[in-house]
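PROTOCOL LOG
Step 1. Enter all chains and additional molecules of the complex.
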Amino acid sequence: MALVVQKFGGSSVANTERILNVARIITETYQKGNDVVVVLSAQGDTTDDLIAKGKEINPKASKREMDMLLSTGEQISVALCAMAIEAMGFQAVSLTGWQAGVLTDSNYSAARIKRIRAERIQKELDKKKIVLVTGFQGINKYDDVTTLGRGGSDTSAVALAAALHADLCQIYTDVDGVYTADPRHVAGAKKLDEITFDEMLELASLGAQVLHNRSVEMAKRYNVNMEVLSSLSGKPGTKVKEVVKTMEKTHVSGVAKDKNVARVALIGLEDRPGIAFKIFSILAKENVNVDIILQSIGRDESKDISFTVSQDDMGRAKEVMLANQDVIGYKRVEASDQVAKISIVGAGMANNAGVACKMFEALYSAGINIHMISTSEIKVSVLVDERDAENAVQAIHDRFFNEFGAN
Amino acid sequence: MALVVQKFGGSSVANTERILNVARIITETYQKGNDVVVVLSAQGDTTDDLIAKGKEINPKASKREMDMLLSTGEQISVALCAMAIEAMGFQAVSLTGWQAGVLTDSNYSAARIKRIRAERIQKELDKKKIVLVTGFQGINKYDDVTTLGRGGSDTSAVALAAALHADLCQIYTDVDGVYTADPRHVAGAKKLDEITFDEMLELASLGAQVLHNRSVEMAKRYNVNMEVLSSLSGKPGTKVKEVVKTMEKTHVSGVAKDKNVARVALIGLEDRPGIAFKIFSILAKENVNVDIILQSIGRDESKDISFTVSQDDMGRAKEVMLANQDVIGYKRVEASDQVAKISIVGAGMANNAGVACKMFEALYSAGINIHMISTSEIKVSVLVDERDAENAVQAIHDRFFNEFGAN
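Step 2. Run joint prediction.
Step 3. Record the structure below.
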């Protein structure tokens, strides 16, 4: 007998039929002798509809009241799903964030979970009930309702799994696992049976969009075994854990594409010490996150520095650079969002120099130009023109996963 | 400076425009220097829609989960209204039943308020905030959400007014006060400036449907000054209080009609002691509420007993009587729901024998037959054929309120 936490996203509970489907998955897990704690998101577009309703009344509504409004969405989901489970002849109890003891800080709309007082959940599990908990929400020290922001329900699920020492945290979604590349765009993309937390973190931050980083970070910190799977297919998904069996091999887990990236270049900097520090401390002060950095010697004794930021930050980054042109000292600034970042991720990569080489070769063969390169222990990222992004992913994926049965 | 509790019903907050209207009423009250606590119902048909959603998934959904589901409706209302008040430049805070400290028993779907822990509300009032509280809901000793059933939000408002020692509890609705008769059906119906709790209780139980009895009973018990008024007209409403100025006069407050009534008659009972006791103890055991009772001597040494019940109970009352025909001993049972109860209510009535007489005279002049009569300190009720109901109300109302400028 194990304790399993199962999380279902908004599309999995969007209507009566899907709620009944979710209830079937839950009760099947329960019937196998497991204790089951379920975390649900709001149904379908409920959260967006509530936001629109609030904004219609007050476009600058306080975050405290917006959280009060939005938290109703998950409450509806858990109550309806409890009813569905009851209809199948099992005992269920739905709990809101405060009933479940999810304590957060007071950062409304983007709160962080500080602690979970799991006594109530434990008591209900002891009564052999299936426990349903609202995702995405908690309460702060004032007893006010908070929401956790994007990816909140995944985070709720992992936090509960950690607090309850669950054996497994299953994240049900509309894809049936983590793939070697986005299966909607890349021919031959394969589902992975397992992947490490670190690889998953790189894939999530690189735009694979299966799990939210916050939840994976938390799962890694508390060593919660996760599994990503589909609520519709019924097939086994992808396990996310600390160490995976295939780790000793040269191992590339996947190819990811991130189009939410922009490149800013400062041309004609004086070649004197401390200039990079100055640039990036100015950006840090403005809360602009910089990803890849490239420094190159220019033609005429000067040098260039380019860096990437998210597309949202591009305008601000350029403004800040212009405002500080005298302090930094450069000739001109260029910015473009017509770029994309393509990455390969794999836990065994650091020990195998040939991996990056293989990636560049694939891009070269496909006639794709590389603007910037960045590497870490478990990934290699390149910046290419946005129009080349799809081809780049396909070429790299073919090279690693399809050509010689490689990897 | 006073403390005012204002309650707005579902139609008063049905859409953005109406919520903004309600926010205007609230902020105007606040600007006059009052502390304001607001109780809101769910928007428009929200509660019915949620019930339908639940029943679709499980027609026999547990009441605990149904309460969890339904309580979201009021939470949406208070959050949206708080946003509207913020948009007008005032500080507001919305509170759910548990945040506001509304403690109830565990009778899901029809819970009774046991106590209100008003510390949180008081703290927010001390900060000069307008406080919005979800009507219709509370929590029980298990920290589970309960709802108060029909008339619940009125009851929430009165309970909060009592707990906070409010100076006034205003119930905003879609009619602009208590009338001498239903203004939609009776020509010449007049709005009353004030009415006593007892009169209001009689009118409510007699089908006037302005305030729910539970709230009036509670207001009477804790001596909470109530006012019924319209959220749309802006006119003064009707004050409900312990003693009213006009009380010393012969005073008829209103004429009410109740069509939800049925008559059951037992014909040919033996004329022996204890038989009435037997009949009504059997009915009491079956939880059938009996209203008017008429006992009459029949033609042949036997007697008849008839009584009225609500239409819902008619079938059961008849069944129970048939099942006990031998025990009770009667010839036959008749039942009809083609009847209506017409009542006049007035605090000064007991001291003036002419009032009932005037009522019967009015019915006689209109050619309307009276089946049964029942009187109390402050009311006279008659049972008439349902087809005569409208005419009866009009005739009585004309006689008391319109003919000689009477009353």
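Step 4. Note key features.
Chain B has a mean pLDDT of 90.
The first helix of chain B runs from residue 16 to 31.
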